[in-house]
Specification:
Layout (H helix, E strand, L loop, with lengths): L3 E4 L2 E4 L2 E2 H8 L3 E5 H16 L2 H4 L3 E5 L6 H8 L4 E4 L2 H9 L7 E3 L6 H10 L3 E4 L2 H13 L5 E5 L25 H13 L4 E6 L9 H20 L6 E3 L17 H12 L5 E4 L3 H4 L3 E12 L5 E5 L8 H5 L5 E3 L8 E6 L8 E8 L7 E4 L20 E6 L2 E6 L4 H6 L8
Helix pairs in contact: 2-10, 6-7, 9-10
The protein binds ligand LLP.
Function: Specifically catalyzes the decarboxylation of meso-diaminopimelate (meso-DAP) to L-lysine.
Pfam family, one: Orn_Arg_deC_N
Organism: Brevundimonas terrae
């Protein structure tokens, strides 16, 4: 569900007319809907609160990697949402958005000593440890600071899932977490340390998961491990269940709603007496954002192929090039007519700069606006300046209000980041 709808024949972001917006801010521009973000958080919160018995006071920690714009984080933070982070930069963003350190989880396979020290200094809620070497380093860093941070051990349950091989994380060969046996050993090592306090286990098996079965299997592994660790006299009070729940990108009806997902988790954890944490990224942000783009021209070739060339490119929205991902493309002012196949491409000099092949679209012409739907997660955050294309602007719509929350950089600003070697 989202709040991008047609009003008077023009696509709006909540109360904001996207034609007017494009005229003022230019294109390509990401536009987010605050009401949609709030709605998604609300659905998760409501579902968790309905299962307090099984989940405790569950923390919903938005996966900042999905959309790290500070205003977006602020919308969620104001509702009580926490943050799942994977770098010092993301922790800094979350703090800047007003999310307290006590609600910030620090995950990631390659945290540096400096990043670990930063997280300890800021007093984050929990550091998710992903390997034995990281645990050793963390203990050394904490000892040097005379600290004892709360940690969780990230388990690789050898159950991978997700919408694409490149976004599956829980499989045996994936780089994330440690296998069950090793996790049990690490937990024991951590329990004996004076410089870390193991509070629980974590897992995240993949992204864009539309079948609850692999998630349920993974969570059962965590439950079993919790019981065994407790039998061995160790304390386990928290389980971090990661993110991963899929969203409908194009009218899919097989995506389980948050309520079904949370009910499944509650069923697995019933009676265990742990506090759950969730790290949804896509679920919160994907359908809360669009990428607004203008048609540069239609290249109707004599061989019959119809290329719709946009002013957005793979550097702005990488998901189709990287994962063959599907994003619905909607005209901002639908004109009707027969939908015919188009290849939708950007101006970057690579064949991979193709958003869609043979996509049925009603006729469009130079100057028309289109919206890539469901682009609020893993959109702007994954963009770059390839071909010296300025980063797309970002705008937040909230009712009838809107604000530029990341301006498009000028060429001067871009070039100012590159001091010229003084001997040239
Ligand atoms: N927690 C951890 C430890 C993660 O690695 C991730 C995502 C999440 C939470 C959030 O997962 P979500 O709820 O968003 O599925 N760029 C890819 C997605 C990469 C996801 C990486 N990890 C894409 O555009 O599809």
């Amino acid at each position: 569900m989202h709040y991008f709808d047609l009003k008077d024949g023009v696509l709006h972001a909540e109360g904001v007319n996207l034609e007017t917006l494009a005229a003022e801010v230019g294109t390509p521009t990401y536009v987010y809907s605050a009401a949609t973000l709030r709605r998604h958080y609300g659905l998760m919160r409501e579902a968790c609160d309905a299962h307090k018995g099984a989940l405790g006071d569950a923390l919903i920690a938005f996966a900042v990697k999905a959309n790290s714009n500070i205003s977006v984080l602020k919308v969620l933070g104001q509702l009580g949402c926490g943050a799942d982070t994977v770098s010092e930069g993301e922790i800094r963003r979350a703090l800047k958005a007003g999310i307290p350190a006590s609600k910030i989880i620090f995950s990631g396979v390659g945290k540096t000593d400096a990043e670990l020290a930063f997280a300890i200094r800021e007093g984050v809620r929990q550091i998710n440890v992903e390997s034995s070497t990281e645990l050793e380093r963390l203990i050394a860093v904490a000892a040097s600071m005379d600290a004892k941070p709360d940690i969780a051990i990230r388990v690789n349950p050898k159950i991978g899932a997700g919408g694409h091989a490149k976004i599956t994380t829980g499989g045996a060969g994936d780089k994330f977490g440690v296998p069950v046996e090793e996790a049990m050993d690490l937990y024991a090592v951590a329990s004996r340390s004076a410089h870390v306090n193991p509070v629980g286990l974590a897992c995240h098996i993949g992204s864009q998961i539309t079948d609850l079965t692999p998630l349920e299997s993974a969570f059962k592994v965590l439950r079993q491990m919790t019981e065994t660790l407790r039998e061995q006299g160790m304390s386990v009070t928290r389980l971090d269940l990661g993110g991963g729940l899929g969203v409908p990108y194009y009218g899919e009806t097989n995506t389980p709603p948050p309520s079904a997902y949370i009910a499944m988790v509650a069923g697995v954890l019933e009676g265990l007496g742990v506090e759950a944490a969730f790290e949804p990224g896509r679920l919160m942000a994907a359908n809360a954002g669009i990428l607004l783009s203008r048609v540069v021209h239609m290249n109707e070739r004599t061989d019959g192929r119809r290329f719709l060339v946009l002013d957005a490119a793979m550097n702005d929205l990488m998901r189709p090039a990287l994962y063959d991902a599907f994003h619905d493309i909607k005209p901002v002012r639908p004109k009707g007519g027969e939908a015919i196949p188009h290849d939708v491409v950007g101006p970057v000099c690579e064949t991979g700069d193709t958003f869609a092949r043979d996509r049925n679209l009603t006729p469009l012409q130079a100057g028309d606006l289109v919206a890539f739907m469901s682009a609020g997660a893993y959109g702007a955050v994954m963009s770059g300046e390839y071909n010296t294309r300025p980063l797309a602007a970002e705008v937040l719509a909230d009712g009838d209000k809107w604000a530029v929350i990341r301006p498009r950089p000028t060429y001067d600003e871009m070039f100012a980041r590159e001091p010229i070697a003084d001997w040239l």
